[in-house]
Specification:
The chain is of the alpha/beta class. Helix content is 34%, strand content 24%. The chain folds into two domains: 10-222, TIM Barrel, CATH 3.20.20; 239-343, Lyase, Ornithine Decarboxylase, Chain A, domain 1. The structure holds pyridoxal-5'-phosphate.
């Protein structure tokens, strides 16, 4: 191994999934796999998750959902508003669709009726985030349209869902009240939703009272903790980024990874794990970075930018906090120039 490598652990992923399932139970896990499973690779991850009993997968958009569908027979959910052509493909592939606007609901129903199929939809109530979703004042019309289509046989209203801001407990509590009221209205209109889902990683982990029967979890299954959040019991980052020492100088050591590999140049000053302990990044250029020296440094040694197994164990979120972003972003920004190696 000469260049930078992102080593991804199947075993750690399985353990995280088990820990998340235990913590969430009886709420079911819907494993979120957007951005190519947070930059870690959908293909191996779907197989691994199916093997340990994950029954719901989330792809964000329909093309991602179709990639997941090619790998598993389990339920696959896509919630990004999409084109008529993609809706038709999703229906043919038995994808559950998240729907948050009247225009999209009409498109989904039309495509199902054209295909002579029945599509499972999850209606999204806007609980305050204003990021797609039926506003409460639009909800009655939405459920009337969906329930009528259900009676005609072209739709099953399988779920009600929303997304929390996670800005404060009080706002999330208020959002849950709007959510539960929307569910009650659907039930009063004759709907029988199979699943209710409101929470992502942080709220599902820390606020059990907000969980529905399903929880959409991405970050925590990959072991990515929240920025400025505490360590998570039983979870560990499933990826480790390493790079080789290329040249040893008295004042600085040059390491073979840089901005072209997707490292933000503003990571200057962040700490990484070297064989001599934690050292600061002095500078980042295109394909290399320089680090404070340590005793006994030699070319070919490997430093750990994030991930378990190194002294000090910096994680992706620690790097992210240094530049005011989230751990997901550090990992998903890594370019194909970083070799991915999936290990047991
Ligand atoms: C990304 C996403 C999630 C997962 O969020 P995490 O914090 O990574 O668990 C859940 N729901 C929606 C709608 C998302 O876009």
């Amino acid at each position: 191994m000469t260049g930078p490598v992102l080593e991804i652990s199947r075993g750690a992923f399985r353990r995280n999934i088990a820990a998340v399932q235990r913590r969430l139970s009886p709420s079911d896990l819907l494993l979120v796999m957007k951005d190519d499973a947070y930059g870690l690779g959908i293909d191996w991850a779907v197989r691994e998750a199916s093997a340990v009993g994950v029954t719901w997968f989330g792809g964000y958009d329909i093309p991602t959902a179709l990639r997941i569908r090619a790998l598993t027979e389990q339920r696959v959910y896509a919630w990004a508003t999409s084109s008529r052509g993609e809706i038709a493909q999703a229906i043919a592939a038995d994808i559950d669709l998240g729907v948050g606007s009247a225009a999209y609901l009409d498109d989904v129903i039309t495509e199902a009726e054209t295909a002579g199929a029945r599509v499972r939809v999850h209606l999204k109530i806007d609980t305050g985030l204003h990021r797609n979703g039926f506003r409460p004042e639009q909800w009655q019309d939405a459920i009337a349209t969906a329930v009528a289509a259900e009676r005609r046989g072209s739709v099953t209203v399988s779920g009600v869902w929303s997304h929390l801001s996670e800005a404060s407990d009080a706002e999330d509590d208020a959002a849950q009240r709007v959510f539960l009221d929307a569910v009650a209205q659907l039930v009063a209109a004759g709907g029988e939703p199979e699943v209710l889902h409101l929470t992502a990683s942080a709220a599902a982990w820390w606020r059990p009272e907000l969980r529905g029967s399903l929880s959409r979890i991405g970050a925590f299954c990959y072991g990515i903790r929240s920025a400025d959040g505490p360590a998570l019991e039983g979870l560990s980052l499933i990826a480790r980024l390493t790079a080789p020492v290329e040249q040893v100088g008295a004042d600085a050591i040059r390491v073979g990874i840089g901005a072209f590999h997707g490292l933000p140049s503003i990571l200057r000053g962040a700490q990484i794990a070297t064989p001599g302990g934690l050292r600061r990044i002095i500078d980042i250029s295109g394909s290399t970075l320089t680090v404070e020296p340590w005793a006994g440094a030699t070319a070919g040694q490997r430093v750990v930018l994030f991930g378990p197994g190194a002294a000090g164990e910096p994680d992706a979120t620690a790097l992210a906090e240094h530049v005011d972003t989230v751990g997901e972003e550090i990992i998903t920004r890594l370019t194909p120039a970083v070799r991915r190696l999936v290990v047991d």
